[in-house]
């Protein structure tokens, strides 16, 4: 389906293929009156307000809250938000995600059979083109102001434009390079030319941007420029044919030695400081010290059906309780494949049970238990006086608690309320791995879904979910991902009392990623890289994930494939995966397969041209200077 930007955006954004003029830019995605010389650019205060719109255009989708007066027509407005489209293009196309919805063009992404007219690949191009266009207008008009602080604003706008071009290089390859408002049809730039532009911009603005940690939360500083250079140089060999791993090491080191630090504050006291990165108060709970560049969300003041609202709602379905995630319901769409789940080292259930205590005469019996109704009972482990626990696999069915295989001493649950009654009703269970507790003093029990790994980054919901995916449209096929929540560190819901919109900010770049960039660049031969330092930094992430050093690795364990897997464990669902797989030559080839890659249940290779997405057909038609990417 042909897609246009609302208010004739297809004629408006001449940056990247279509002609643009200053008057056209009055049709802003946030406020159509905000990009005018006589208003926004009258002074530094007004310019700062306009700068906020440049940040917001990556987070929001239109001029009227979550829906209404959308920037991009002919696609659901919620789908058109930047980070939601980044998820669709960089995560849904990989082993990290599947979606059960049948919207035209969406199943094509995970199956890797998208066409040149795919709605989602086109909409992302327009979103990035819009950002470039607005940045160009801001830079041109703000340059007329003399206040010193405006130079910092301009540097931030140049960063945002460079970030948009970084995405365009990654996703589309050869696109027009436009740095000023113009009515001319632009020429197509090569990937190398675009790479050189982004590099030069970041190098020029690094000393103009605010110093490390001195800018207000949500705005970039010099460290963001260094971090984006780290990302750019890590991918240089793929994008330009020339490796720049030494430069990646250099700028990763700059970031590592800055004022930013990984979060080690376990604010909610659950034994790991990782989940704080994705809670509703991640702007204040300690996670903000790790965030280098974020999209900021507020359930009342910045409402969208993209962003973190999408990542929370869309991942809830099946037997999941939406209130535990701080929202009013689930959209029953997103899950993951077993390829991600199996990236996390699995613990032996036998070892877990042996660590609980001494095996007892109390056990569970039923057709949902390993040995059925005929037994023998699956014995529990005594953890205290009249306290018992057990890790076990269950199937769909029922169970009861029984002493010494004696039906004269058994407990069930008449009210399905967690309270036990002697001889009570059978307790219904669904297939999965569980941690079961029994308290004979209080006559209560619990059955909690459990992922058998010590790595607490493995945030999956398995209760009633099948690890294997047979039917993508069925939410219960594939584990659900519980990484993002609209719950703060105190367990309270976000500010939208209705539970529609989410407060959680999304990190686009955080320090943990740069740790992994440093390690990979070092292993790939980057000069100045220290493998021992790389190992130390990776172990910081592993210790945070495991609640201690028990799973730490040595320098001999650090291989390129280990780093790729560690990136998967640390960064899943954060918009990185496709880029990583391409860098390893795994995205299209048969060197690494995952379920439904190439639209095959077992996975198959696809043509290498799918390392890039197609340019929108509409801009090819309008601008004869442009050539479509190979294969489309």
UniProtKB/TrEMBL annotation:
InterPro entries on file: SusD-like_N, SusD_RagB_dom, TPR-like_helical_dom_sf
Residue ranges of domain SusD-like N-terminal in the record: 124-234
Record PROSITE patterns: PROKAR_LIPOPROTEIN
Domain of life: Bacteria
One GO cellular component, as annotated: cell outer membrane
UniProt entry keywords in alphabetical sequence: Cell outer membrane, Membrane, Signal
Family statement: Belongs to the SusD family.
Name of the featured protein: RagB/SusD family nutrient uptake outer membrane protein
């Amino acid at each position: 389906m042909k897609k246009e930007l609302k208010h004739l955006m297809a004629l408006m954004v001449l940056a990247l293929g279509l002609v643009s003029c200053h008057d056209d830019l009055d049709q802003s995605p946030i406020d159509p009156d905000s990009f005018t010389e006589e208003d926004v650019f009258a002074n530094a205060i007004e310019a700062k307000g306009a700068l906020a719109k440049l940040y917001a255009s990556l987070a929001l989708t239109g001029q009227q809250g979550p829906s209404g007066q959308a920037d991009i027509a002919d696609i659901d407005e919620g789908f058109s938000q930047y980070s939601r489209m980044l998820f669709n293009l960089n995560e849904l196309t990989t082993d990290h995600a599947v979606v059960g919805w049948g919207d035209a063009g969406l199943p094509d992404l995970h199956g890797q059979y998208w066409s040149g007219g795919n709605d989602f690949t086109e909409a992302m191009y327009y979103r990035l083109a819009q950002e470039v266009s607005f940045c160009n207008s801001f830079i041109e008009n703000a340059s007329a102001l003399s206040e010193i602080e405006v130079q910092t604003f301009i540097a931030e706008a140049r960063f945002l434009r460079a970030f948009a071009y970084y995405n365009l290089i990654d996703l589309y390859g050869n696109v027009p390079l436009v740095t000023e408002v113009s009515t001319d049809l632009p020429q197509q730039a090569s990937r190398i030319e675009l790479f050189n532009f982004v590099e030069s911009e970041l190098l020029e603005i690094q000393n103009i941007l605010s110093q490390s940690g001195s800018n207000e939360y949500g705005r970039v500083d010099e460290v963001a420029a260094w971090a984006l250079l780290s990302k750019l140089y890590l991918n240089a060999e793929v994008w330009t044919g020339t490796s720049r791993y030494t430069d990646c090491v250099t700028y990763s080191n700059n970031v590592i030695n800055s004022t930013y630090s990984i979060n080690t504050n376990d604010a909610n006291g659950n034994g790991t400081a990782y989940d704080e990165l994705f809670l509703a108060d991640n702007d204040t709970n300690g996670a903000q010290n790790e965030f280098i560049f974020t999209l900021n969300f507020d359930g009342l003041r910045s409402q969208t059906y993209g962003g973190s609202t999408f990542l929370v709602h869309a991942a809830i379905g099946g037997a999941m309780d939406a209130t535990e995630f701080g929202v009013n319901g689930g959209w029953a769409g997103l899950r993951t494949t077993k390829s991600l789940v199996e990236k996390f080292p699995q613990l032996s259930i036998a070892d877990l049970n042996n660590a609980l205590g001494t095996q007892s005469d109390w056990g569970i019996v039923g057709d949902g238990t390993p040995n059925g109704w005929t037994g023998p009972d699956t014995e529990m482990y005594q953890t205290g006086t009249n306290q018992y626990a057990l890790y076990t696999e269950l199937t769909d069915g029922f169970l009861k608690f029984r002493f010494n295989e004696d039906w004269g001493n058994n407990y069930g649950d008449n009210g399905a309320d967690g309270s036990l009654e002697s001889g009570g009703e059978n307790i219904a269970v669904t297939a999965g791995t569980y941690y079961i507790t029994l308290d004979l003093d209080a006559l209560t029990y619990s059955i909690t879904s459990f992922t058998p790994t010590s790595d607490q980054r493995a945030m999956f919901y398995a209760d009633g979910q099948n690890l294997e995916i047979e039917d993508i449209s069925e939410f219960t096929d594939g584990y659900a991902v519980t990484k993002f929540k609209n719950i703060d560190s105190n367990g309270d819901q976000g500010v939208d009392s209705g539970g529609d919109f989410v407060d959680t900010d999304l990190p686009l770049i955080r320090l943990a990623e740069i740790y992994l960039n440093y390690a990979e660049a070092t292993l790939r031969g980057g000069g100045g890289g220290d493998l021992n330092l790389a190992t130390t930094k990776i172990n910081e992430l592993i210790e945070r994930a495991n609640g201690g050093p028990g799973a730490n690795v040595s320098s001999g364990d650090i291989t390129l494939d280990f780093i790729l897997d560690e990136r998967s464990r640390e960064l899943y669902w954060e918009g990185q995966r496709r880029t990583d797989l391409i860098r390893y030559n795994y995205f299209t080839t048969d060197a690494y397969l995952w379920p439904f890659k190439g639209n095959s249940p077992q996975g198959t290779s696809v043509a290498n041209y799918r390392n890039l997405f197609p340019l929108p057909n509409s801009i090819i038609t309008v601008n004869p200077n442009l050539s479509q990417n190979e294969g489309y």
